[in-house]
Design brief:
Distance between the termini: 42 Å
Helix content: 25-40%
Largest sheet: 9 strands, mixed
Number of helices: 10
Oligomer: single chain
Strand content: 25-35%
CATH topology of one domain: FAD/NAD(P)-binding domain
CATH architecture of one domain: 3-Layer(bba) Sandwich
Number of strands: 20
Shape: globular
CATH superfamily of one domain: FAD/NAD(P)-binding domain
Radius of gyration: 21 Å
Length: 417
């Protein structure tokens, strides 16, 4: 088979890779999108809570409260779980995460990412309209529930802080919660409804809709092995399932698997993962869930997906490729049944994915400093769905010489030395 050639080769067809491919294509580049799967959105982009989190000003940093850290250390927190056998592997990264979570450094991360957060819904709405995928966006926002006065007070303090950056929301008492979600059960100190974020009832389907748009506009999507990427005369090449693919430039957008490429090329980047699980369940009777709902005290989200009610867990610290240990799903299930009328599981077993994270909770977006024509776009932590198109725009502007809409310097890989 003849070698395929293009201007740019984008490795990874999750939301981040597809977003980059579309923005490069929009700027006149001939792009080939490569993934190990034959369909887009089959990896990390498949398994999130479906929230385009345009109201999330502050990233998920390591807690600073001693009591909360103790609960994590004792593996008693519903928000996080860790594998004791894998502790030596990820403990050095956790130390870097803790250090990067100081108030000063956390604020720096938040302000660096804020322009991308503010751009997130705009970019998604434009792509959804162009892709003809309006049924995959619901403008419901989402609700965060708090069971204790202490957790509600902390959330209200954080909300007041977020308001300074344009975040809108409504504080709900018990009666207001019931009006919005009449089928929820339980006693709550209160809740906050954030109306601005979009909800996607099929995140993997949205990535596929964007990939279909990319192909309709002349882009090529091929299956292949990104680990075979190598520098060649005039650019980069990789082995696809049906022959070689080459391009002047290459973008590494492989999410939690990005180290399989940058590591071979000699880059030492502190990429780690926060694993997570989901399970779809049927709703019982005529029960309806109108919004994604976070039970903040119990550490899970229920989201009304097309496939059923998706129960998503907090984070698990373990090796990316270690066997699944869905402890958090098992712990959350009885609590979720008590919160909402859930029936039988739709899935045969829980799905597991990995969120790609850097210690400062900022992605790497920009040029690879030691290799001409190589670019990075990975490490979007909990915000891959949210930021994929916005970070794709920023990267494409950098690659094509446009003035970037946001300062790219905080995302440079050089920040790690």
């Amino acid at each position: 088979m003849a070698e395929l050639k293009a201007d740019v080769l984008v490795l990874g067809a999750g939301m981040v890779g597809v977003g980059a491919a579309l923005h490069l294509q929009k700027r006149g580049r001939d792009v080939i999108l490569l993934d190990r799967q034959e369909l887009a959105g089959e990896g990390t982009s498949f398994g999130n809570a479906g929230i385009i989190e345009s109201a999330s000003v502050f990233p998920y940093m390591f807690p600073r409260d001693a009591r909360e850290i103790l609960r994590y250390a004792l593996n008693r927190s519903p928000q996080a779980h860790y594998s004791i056998t894998d502790l030596p592997v990820f403990l050095p990264w956790l130390v870097r995460y803790f250090l990067a979570s100081s108030p000063k450094r956390a604020l720096h991360s938040a302000m660096a990412e804020l322009p991308l957060i503010r751009r997130s819904m705009i970019e998604h709405e434009e792509l959804i309209a162009e892709a003809g995928a309006g049924e995959l966006l619901r403008r419901t926002g989402w609700i965060k529930l708090y069971r204790s006065e202490a957790t509600l007070a902390k959330a209200l303090s954080e909300f007041e802080r977020a308001k300074q950056y344009g975040v809108a929301g409504a504080v709900l008492d018990d009666a207001a919660i019931k009006r919005r979600e009449p089928h929820l059960s339980g006693e709550f100190a209160g809740a906050i409804h954030f109306p601005a974020p979009g909800f996607v009832p099929d995140p993997g389907g949205l990535a596929k809709a964007y990939a279909a748009l990319f192909k309709r506009k002349g882009g090529r999507f091929v299956a292949g092995d990104a680990k075979t990427l190598e520098q060649a005369a005039g650019g980069w090449r990789v082995n696809a399932d049906h022959g070689l693919v080459s391009a002047r430039e290459a973008v590494v957008a492989l999410g939690p698997w990005s180290d399989l490429v940058f590591g071979r090329l000699g880059y030492s980047i502190p990429l780690s993962v926060k694993r997570g699980y989901h399970l779809h369940l049927a709703a019982r009777g005529n029960a309806v869930l109108n919004h994604p709902v976070l039970d903040a005290d119990q550490g899970f989200v229920l989201a009304p997906m097309n496939r059923g009610i998706r129960l998503t867990t907090g984070v698990e610290f373990a090796r990316r490729d270690a066997a699944p240990t869905p402890v958090q799903v098992q712990r959350a299930l009885p609590r979720a049944h008590a919160l909402f009328p859930l029936g039988e599981a739709v899935d045969a077993k829980p799905w597991m994915g990995a969120r790609p994270c850097l210690p400062d909770m900022l992605p790497v977006i920009g040029r690879a400093p030691r290799h001409a024509g190589l670019w990075f776009d990975f490490g979007h932590q909990h915000h891959g769905l949210t930021l994929g198109p916005a970070s794709g725009r920023l990267l494409a502007e950098m690659m094509t010489g446009e003035t970037p809409f946001a300062d790219p310097s905080p995302f440079a890989v050089e920040r790690f030395g």
